[in-house]
């Protein structure tokens, strides 16, 4: 009886007519197995690798743009809402009609106290929070707290505004420290993805050359701060399109103002207590606050959906595994590093100059002279000047790194000296162009200051184990400076300018002294980062390059390599392998010998 043909044709078998099968095998020949299960014939490994790393680089650029846009929207919403809120609450008629005897001035003073005083304690918890949540999730949490502050303005009461202001004050330093850390990490990752062939030759455990990521860091910081400084312009949109229609002109609001500029005392001494011609409807206020809330929610979505992780999962574990006590102590141990000690005056001045632009220059010189209705345009000039100068910071690719900082300091020095001897007349519009030029030039100096400092810190401290500590210290000193400005708000303008001038000269001299020490080859003393101490719980990482391996595991791995290199001995040795995670959890070192 004739055998039945197989249900499925065998690969390479000869058909009934003896012809070639569909795979192209000749009669009596079997197709090689590689043709069936091997690689795609047109596969080009080098081209696919190049495309993969190009996608990774585009992903890094997407992360930088998303973080920059999220920071711009967050800070713009916060400044715009706070500015509109303080102007409305300042008006006596608005307070009496809308809120009666609720005590809005007292609530506003406690709210400002919460925003300005709470960051003083940020040095105690910021590194712990960043290591616990991770850089990206710390950014998302802080942006969410800013959105919470916006949402409480739907129902303005003591028990909503003051607690949200305290929470906002707690989130200020973690937000900007994690932002600075994030941008620095993105520049390092972009370098790795751009020079992946060199990384393959050097090995995965080999660190890239010192300062190799500096050009990318400068570009990314310029992008970030060009977006960030636009937040001051975005914050003026509620003023321009809503609140300006309800304001009195300068002849009413500045009627009792006698002196401006360098002759003024406090903030707008003699300013009229009523600034609103008509009160805005509650429905219109709710619409404006809803738009601001939607923008804050959009910033949260940008950070959540478009920002990738700053570290690999194993790197996150390594950063946490140095011990929470060590994480808490390390920011204080950086006092021994002479580079940070020399940069502290610049950190303090960085906080001084931003607050002076928003209060001293904008209010003491601008509003006092040309009226409250032109405050928005003055801050827009500052914002556009700072944003354009952040892009000009790319010239640092061809100039020494000290040039941006010294240029910004020199520009602010000239402006401060000019403002020290200038007292514009109240209710005089003839010199308004001088104020706009001064605001724009002050923004240029601020941009050089911020971009130069952040780039310098990312170059000096490029180890990923130290960056969150360094940016925490930087923004904490900025918060301390802002707190000092808050305490000295009632000082005469000449005293404020004198403090600003002395701090600026001390900051520039201290920075140049630091650069001189580095050129002489003086080695900084940095605190030691402890080795990660891992606790094995269940299934862990089984890659070849295991960043979680301990000293004992590394020694066993070395012994295995030596045994393999020695070759077979006279007696067959037991198989040398790394114990599996289950055996590690039980405390064993591998297969037991019986």
From TrEMBL:
<dbReference type="InterPro" id="IPR043268">
    <property type="entry name" value="UNC93B1"/>
</dbReference>
<dbReference type="GO" id="GO:0034162">
    <property type="term" value="P:toll-like receptor 9 signaling pathway"/>
</dbReference>
<dbReference type="GO" id="GO:0002250">
    <property type="term" value="P:adaptive immune response"/>
</dbReference>
<dbReference type="GO" id="GO:0045087">
    <property type="term" value="P:innate immune response"/>
</dbReference>
<feature type="transmembrane region" description="Helical">
    <location>
        <begin position="375"/>
        <end position="398"/>
    </location>
</feature>
<dbReference type="GO" id="GO:0045335">
    <property type="term" value="C:phagocytic vesicle"/>
</dbReference>
<dbReference type="GO" id="GO:0002224">
    <property type="term" value="P:toll-like receptor signaling pathway"/>
</dbReference>
<feature type="transmembrane region" description="Helical">
    <location>
        <begin position="343"/>
        <end position="363"/>
    </location>
</feature>
<keyword id="KW-0812">Transmembrane</keyword>
<feature type="transmembrane region" description="Helical">
    <location>
        <begin position="137"/>
        <end position="155"/>
    </location>
</feature>
<keyword id="KW-1133">Transmembrane helix</keyword>
<dbReference type="GO" id="GO:0034138">
    <property type="term" value="P:toll-like receptor 3 signaling pathway"/>
</dbReference>
<keyword id="KW-0051">Antiviral defense</keyword>
<keyword id="KW-0391">Immunity</keyword>
<dbReference type="GO" id="GO:0006886">
    <property type="term" value="P:intracellular protein transport"/>
</dbReference>
<feature type="transmembrane region" description="Helical">
    <location>
        <begin position="161"/>
        <end position="183"/>
    </location>
</feature>
<keyword id="KW-0256">Endoplasmic reticulum</keyword>
<keyword id="KW-1064">Adaptive immunity</keyword>
<keyword id="KW-0968">Cytoplasmic vesicle</keyword>
<keyword id="KW-0967">Endosome</keyword>
<feature type="transmembrane region" description="Helical">
    <location>
        <begin position="469"/>
        <end position="489"/>
    </location>
</feature>
<keyword id="KW-0458">Lysosome</keyword>
<dbReference type="GO" id="GO:0035325">
    <property type="term" value="F:Toll-like receptor binding"/>
</dbReference>
<comment type="function">
    <text>Plays an important role in innate and adaptive immunity by regulating nucleotide-sensing Toll-like receptor (TLR) signaling. Required for the transport of a subset of TLRs (including TLR3, TLR7 and TLR9) from the endoplasmic reticulum to endolysosomes where they can engage pathogen nucleotides and activate signaling cascades. May play a role in autoreactive B-cells removal.</text>
</comment>
<keyword id="KW-0399">Innate immunity</keyword>
<dbReference type="GO" id="GO:0051607">
    <property type="term" value="P:defense response to virus"/>
</dbReference>
<dbReference type="GO" id="GO:0005789">
    <property type="term" value="C:endoplasmic reticulum membrane"/>
</dbReference>
<feature type="region of interest" description="Disordered">
    <location>
        <begin position="1"/>
        <end position="22"/>
    </location>
</feature>
<keyword id="KW-0597">Phosphoprotein</keyword>
<feature type="transmembrane region" description="Helical">
    <location>
        <begin position="216"/>
        <end position="243"/>
    </location>
</feature>
<feature type="transmembrane region" description="Helical">
    <location>
        <begin position="405"/>
        <end position="425"/>
    </location>
</feature>
<feature type="region of interest" description="Disordered">
    <location>
        <begin position="524"/>
        <end position="594"/>
    </location>
</feature>
<comment type="similarity">
    <text>Belongs to the unc-93 family.</text>
</comment>
<feature type="transmembrane region" description="Helical">
    <location>
        <begin position="495"/>
        <end position="514"/>
    </location>
</feature>
<keyword id="KW-0325">Glycoprotein</keyword>
<dbReference type="GO" id="GO:0005764">
    <property type="term" value="C:lysosome"/>
</dbReference>
<feature type="transmembrane region" description="Helical">
    <location>
        <begin position="60"/>
        <end position="81"/>
    </location>
</feature>
<feature type="transmembrane region" description="Helical">
    <location>
        <begin position="111"/>
        <end position="130"/>
    </location>
</feature>
<dbReference type="GO" id="GO:0034154">
    <property type="term" value="P:toll-like receptor 7 signaling pathway"/>
</dbReference>
<protein>
    <recommendedName>
        <fullName>Protein unc-93 homolog B1</fullName>
    </recommendedName>
</protein>
<feature type="transmembrane region" description="Helical">
    <location>
        <begin position="285"/>
        <end position="311"/>
    </location>
</feature>
<keyword id="KW-0472">Membrane</keyword>
